[in-house]
Amino acid sequence: MTRRNTVAFFLLCCLLVAVPAAALSLPPDARRDLAVLATAYPGILAAIEVAPAGRVTAVLADGARVVYDDGRPRTPRQLVDDPDLKSMFVQPYPLGPVASEPPAGFSPGRQRVLELFFALYGHDKAQVHVNLRPVRFFSQTIPFNARQGAAEAFARVTARLEKLAAADPRVTRYLLPASGGLVWRMIAGTQRLSAHAFAVAVDVSPRGNPYWRNLPRGQNILSGRQAFPAAVVAAFEAEGFIWGGKWSEFDLMHFEYRPELVLAARLARGEAIPLAAIDGLVRPGR
User: Fold this and answer.
1) pTM (2 d.p.)
2) Taking the domains of the chain in order of start, what are their residue ranges?
């Protein structure tokens, strides 16, 4: 063996020793999605357990254990009603202007793993309330969750929108008045907590921007989606928010803080974004 080959072999051995054996068996999709979560929400992952059969479990900062992929096939409705962590990334969020009417069942972001949201923002109304910070939104003040940078991101959105409104005051009719803050409630017609329950969502001009339950079911509203100012959507997306106007069950008034989905979308379109290192979190599971 030549000296160069000897050195290469030595370095390879060091690398294999440094990386836990369990990390080597972490599936590529799990590695990507969990790294995205760790990047979007620093500190949320306490550990990643890989069982001998390959089952991956995320141990959250509050001690909750959430399976990444339980192996069950899901319809679009089941993705929303009973998601695992992988389900949150199955439907990629589409950044940019709306080009077409989304297919039935396409609602990226409505797949919310509640255990994750509890760990991120608070386990009940009282805990969420403690984490609130008032954020100015034009002439209003909206309480927003200060954890995981949500309130700071919303404040940056406001600064962007104020610049847009200064250049074109007509955009304010799509934005004001707005409602948000802590509204601990279930989503209409479901037993799932709303993103508003965690104070990480805002509804802009609720009377002017339609919600799917208030219009005939199956109605094509592409013109309405496209009439909503693309610059407003871009301002929110730039700070980690997604827009309910891109859902098949549309909610044109609704923006919620989901930096993991925006980050995943940016990676999917080829942006070079460094992700948090997660190999040190991986350990054998049971």
Assistant:
1) 0.88
2) 24-284
